[in-house]
Amino acid sequence: MNLSGKTVCVIGATGGIGREVSAVFAKKGANLLLVARKMDSLTVLEKELAPTKVNISKYTCDLTDPNSNESLAGKIAKDHKNIDVLLHLAGIGVYKNFPEISYEEWKASMDINVTSAFYIFQKLLPLLEKSEKAYVIASGSGMGKVALSGRSAYCTSKFALRGLMQSLSKEYKKTNIHFVHLTLGSVLTSFGPLSLTHKKRKHKEGKGYLEPDWLADHIATKVEHDTLEDETPVYPRHYFSESKKDIR
Question: Which parts of the chain span the membrane according to its record (predicted)?
Answer without folding.
Answer: none
